[in-house]
Amino acid sequence: MTSRGKFITFEGIDGAGKSTHIRYCADLIAASGVELVSTREPGGTPLGEKLRELILHEAMHLETEALLVFASRREHIAQLIEPALARGAWVISDRFTDASFAYQGGGRGLELVKIDTLANWVHPELSPDLTILFDVPLDVARARLDATRELDRFEQEKADFFLAARNEYLRRAAAEPARFRVIDSSQSIDAIRVELDAIVAALLAGAA
Ligand SMILES: Nc1ncnc2c1ncn2[C@@H]1O[C@H](COP(=O)(O)OP(=O)(O)OP(=O)(O)O)[C@@H](O)[C@H]1O
Ligand SMILES: Cc1cn([C@H]2C[C@H](O)[C@@H](COP(=O)(O)O)O2)c(=O)[nH]c1=O
Question: What residue ranges are annotated as transmembrane (predicted)?
Fold first, then answer.
């Protein structure tokens, strides 16, 4: 019987370096011969990508925003994540529900109990096997973003928003130490890769 794949999520405030390191981890995992699906939220499906455009670029009520990220997630789980895990593939996702707690909860101030309710409705039985949190001071993240691209609706938020989002991420990591690995993302890319090598090696060894 095929064993279920592993679900690994990458989190952090904008500019923490997730996207850079996801590509590196994806290559490490794929090189081991495991079937790997690399995806992102909001998005990951044709409908989810349309919702992503709205979420990132249209002004809206904060509860509308929360409902849309979970609508995108529902589709993502049904169309891509669950089928992949069920056939034994590993899934790595650039963000998942921890981002809703950090951004809609911490950043925007939506009551965490409402996010809990949505999470329990949309994925009562699905939780990442491992979450890698790229933690970085706000000024470092901001400098990286400013150097690279046009900013979306979230990336244009003020320092208070990102401070609250970062704190919520760290609070969640402290509450679930077995699931989270926190990486100091102000280090050089090479230093972070050394940490990621060890994390991925342990994951692959556990799955062998
Ligand atoms: N450790 C690092 N040191 C220096 N620069 C870095 C580091 N990590 C990432 N960068 C650079 O910072 C920029 C933002 O990185 P990246 O797009 O990976 O961030 P991100 O966390 O995925 O952001 P977002 O969540 O907004 O997509 C890129 O130009 C990347 O090369
Ligand atoms: C899943 C999820 C994401 N967001 C926000 C966080 C980011 O600012 C954007 C996605 O951009 P990225 O460059 O691809 O990281 O969406 C959110 O607010 N809530 C969520 O649940």
Answer: none
